[in-house]
Amino acid sequence: MCTVAVSIDPDADLPLILAGVRDEFVDRPWLAPAEHWPGLLGGRDLQAGGTWLAVDPAARRVAALLNGHGVLAPADARRSRGELPLLAAARGSLPDLDPRRYDPFHLVVADPAGASLWRWDGVELGREELPPGTHMIVNSGWEQGEENERVAFFRPLFAKAARPRSAGAGNWWGEWAFLATGAGLATEDPRAMIVRHTLPDGRVFASLSVTLVALAPGEVRYDFTAEPRDPASFRRVLPE
């Protein structure tokens, strides 16, 4: 993923809301979210394996992966970062692993009690707790200032957006669906969350999908769209 927004409100009916946008080369093969692994749901990357976001409905937990910046893993020892959301969603934390085998990453792990952020820059592995409030993580990490134009534009809007209250039908996500699909900004806008770029070699790098997840002690709502500019196109993954 390239953008994750997380809203934490311990007193709300739905304490944890997460929105994630996946950017990737358009010709990279993948499958839509389903139970591709026992007890875990997420979209499946068919090139390197794994996923960019995994949900464990029994544990009421979600893990979302973003690529980071830093020192790359050695080619002869590199493992796919796509296995990390699966491990974290199933366990609630990263297991004892050798981070040097992975390229840099940011990994959001969240449940109704809150969220944490794991970060690896190829040199140091760290973990931070996200406090109550609205936060945005991008490829540069947890952006808390105004330097990143995307975050400076969208974070106040997500913070003001009305929270869903219960698992119902219709336009359940409301403002969250509109914001997560780009709020109508053009893809070339420097603030854009939904992007599309044609590289000099002709390859196209673009936002391919958007995920919305809401968690409460007795509830999981997980919606997905492969039409990232259309807030009306989300389909429900959970509850089935």
UniProtKB/TrEMBL annotation:
Top-level taxonomic group: Bacteria
Annotated InterPro entries: TANGO2
Protein name per its UniProtKB record: Transport and Golgi organisation 2
Organism listed in the record: Planobispora siamensis
Lineage: Bacteria, Bacillati, Actinomycetota, Actinomycetes, Streptosporangiales
